[in-house]
Amino acid sequence: MSLFGSTPGFATGGTSMFGSTTTDNHNPMKDIEVTSPPDDSISCLAFSPPTLPGNFLIAGSWANDVRCWEVQDNGQTIPKAQQMHTGPVLDACWSDDGSKVFTASCDKTAKMWDLNSNQAIQIAQHDAPVKTIHWIKAPNYSCVMTGSWDKTLKFWDTRSPTPMMTLQLPERCYCADVVHPMAAVATAERGLIVYQLENQPSEFRRIESPLKHQHRCVAIFKDKVNKPTGFALGSIEGRVAIHYINPPNPAKDNFTFKCHRSNGTNTSAPQDIYAVNGIAFHPVHGTLATVGSDGRFSFWDKDARTKLKTSEQLDQPISACCFNHNGNIFAYASSYDWSKGHEFYNPQKKNYIFLRNAAEELKPRNKK
Amino acid sequence: MGRKKKKQLKPWCWYCNRDFDDEKILIQHQKAKHFKCHICHKKLYTGPGLAIHCMQVHKETIDAVPNAIPGRTDIELEIYGMEGIPEKDMEERRRLLEQKTQESQKKKQQDDSDEYEDDESAASTSFQPQQVQPQQGYIPPMAQPGLPPVPGAPGMPPGIPPLMAGVPPMMPGMPPVMPGMPPGMMPMGGMMPPGPGIPPLMPGMPPGRSGLLNSCYGMPPPVGPRPGMPPMTQAQPVTAPGILNRPPAPAAAAPTPQPPVTKPLFPSAGQAAAAVPGPVGTDFKPLNATPATTTEPPKPTFPAYTQSTASTTSTTNSTAAKPATSITSKPATLTTTSATSKLIHPDEDISLEERRAQLPKYQRNLPRPGQASLGNPPVGPIGGMMPPQPGIPPQQQGMRPPMPPHGQYGAHHQGMPGYLPGAMPPYGQGPPMVPPYQSGPPRPPMGMRPPVMSQGGRY
């Protein structure tokens, strides 16, 4: 009996390999399928923080819902609860203690979902869809940061309906990431701003984009002493830029690499270039994963500047990805991301979330 | 590779780090690339010469050397060929060359990922023209206040430019007020004895770096074209300007790579926001006191940003080749196809999510004030309808009828806004509604785990 009750016949078992006779390519990597996935495209994935025992996964989708599963060590996924917005959910994140989930939606609001009571209340309001939401935990304050297409970045104390602070963005917020005390926000028209969050959030630097195309996703990485030191920025043009904030030699240390393209060496056919939909850093190894519209995920070692692995091609784009808190699990979502427009949207097509063991494959390559 | 000279084996351009076979060629390169007036294309001999020409002839100021890599854009440095290059940069170059030869011997070729290798060179060359514009935010690492010079600290990639490594050896025994000023200033009539004459020229560094040069520049007579200037620089034990900032003590400690050294990631954080160590209220004002600090979006602590962002955006527009007009009217279009590649992305330059969200299908649920019914009887307050019944596509709100594929919403769980009923009426009706779907038989939450099954969560 599945709690989410979408298509019947979905066992709450773990490794539901379909064993289908048709050669469908929905899971070529033979990874674990999460049960009761959402009914429309998945926009975001997030695992619970280490403060919660076990692993809980939340996923927001274009079906206006955000769902929560427990992921057990044997791979079983158990649907736990669900909350709704009145518009598609674009982003979701956990509080640092794992008791709350914050969700951002096209309905221009953000909500705080208390998992213990399964109640969700609105905590934020924008003038346009809220695209990003992050929890900030600083030594002297805590708040929720929301980025919206209304070109503002707002910071909310969840107890008050007015924001603690509003910062103007040069353009619509497209993606953001927070690793205290740094926040990186990428906007439309290739805008890129870094904020420092100590004492209170303030703009630190506006950076000229290292990429020539629309920004799509950003993820902050840390140095060996666990301090945020730079970020990876992905664009719609199959390219990721690795950018350090204060490198000793920017021309050498910052670089970009191509990814999520077809026909790498085959020059006869024109190369298809796909958008990078998500970037996630392994919390332990510091290596990164990228997922793209081409339906593949890849693992990379940015220090050795090499690719570690590329997956087989799924039959749908991969729209989101994340690691769990200790880096053992890599979750990625297979759903249509609109990269080919409205014509290629098939509402009947199932959406999937896959879980993969990430402990081994993301080990950094030894540098000579 | 020829006889060993003191300066360098092969002539190289200080502005862009390129190697040349001959100093003559190097000078031609500098004149054509770095000292060429962008208005009239006249080739000058030096950076300051170019600046003066533009000022006098075109009434325009230049603040950076064209086509120079960041950190090397100083327009006031008198560099001609290999002359005028600060000693520290010379040393760094020597070390770099040494390292390169070592590395290429030791390192095996990495065979992975054409994709990485391909783009390194492409990226680096593409970076340089972009970074010609002086990004005020980017400060040469040496000169950054508060950034401890500990390149040995873990986390640094190998092959660190020896700029940092070169510093500590120079520190000990260095007279505290060594002319850190760019050596180009030295040959100004040769009048400035290194040492006590200099101190007034050492203001705090990087933001004021040009300030330093300006003040220094004012003193001696302006220098004209200077072929044949005596190469005084080599004799000067010039140090990195940033060293002057730090009292000798921490610099002496610099060479020891200690992991606990925390590099302040945002060294200017202290300037941007006054430190509020105590508990902070909801608007970031501290709860116990009210200092006169600004809580609004930061005033331009980096006033150069307004300039650089303006220039950034204009560069962006030109280099990106996107005719970005106003967002509300026509979205900009992308150049998608070329002979060899095709961008799998809709033509308009709005994000995929924006495109998708415009569909009426995804908009129907946006709450509008006062929309009690859309042809369907409003079943009481929003969310009030359900006795949770799984699998019933709810018809209240009238929003979902045409969404059968997604019909399994079951109970709508509108969390009611939990605060200030009057403040935001996004749900149209009755915000003060108590959320009707309590977690049925509320299971005692086990520790922090979300309830296994809640009434509200059932579908």
From TrEMBL, chain A:
Predominant place of localization: cytoplasm
Biased composition range(s): Low complexity: 14-23
WD repeats: 82-123, 123-166, 276-310
Keyword Heme: no
Signal peptide: none
Keyword annotations: Cell cycle, Cell division, Cytoplasm, Mitosis, Nucleus, Repeat, Transport, WD repeat
One Pfam family from the record: WD40
Region Disordered: start-end pairs: 14-35
Any one of the GO CC terms: nuclear envelope
GO biological process annotation, one example: cell division
InterPro entries: WD40/YVTN_repeat-like_dom_sf, WD40_PAC1, WD40_repeat_CS, WD40_repeat_dom_sf, WD40_rpt
Intracellular or extracellular location(s): Cytoplasm, Cytoskeleton, Spindle pole; Nucleus
Family: Belongs to the WD repeat rae1 family.
Protein name: Rae1 protein homolog
Organism, scientific name: Dryobates pubescens
